[in-house]
Protein: Asp23/Gls24 family envelope stress response protein
Organism: Deinococcus hohokamensis
Amino acid sequence: MSGSIHITEAALASLIGLTAHEIPGVVGMAPANLKEGLSRVLGRANASDGVVIGKDGGGQYTADLYIVAAYGVSIPTVARNITDRVEHMVRSHAGIELAATRVHAVGVQRV
């Protein structure tokens, strides 16, 4: 007997959001929906907020992360660290290869 495992987009978004919170220089996530207001920083309780899961033309998952960075950090370095860590975690914990991981720094905040 064999079965299959289905990972929902919501579970994938939560895994990605929790992983992003672990990266030094990330203050929190920002709502991807502009109606909610980009000034609101989301904490760990809303792990999947600030993460948008999509699919490319070939049906592979993509991830867009909307972060608020700590003041004084190198945003390109933080974005690279997020991308590397998220892609590794998704591959090793969910068995999914992301087609694209895009980090959008939508704000900077003093910690």
Helices lie at 9-21, 75-94. The longest helix spans residues 75-94. The beta strands are 26-29, 51-55, 61-70, 100-109. The chain is about 30% helix and 25% strand.
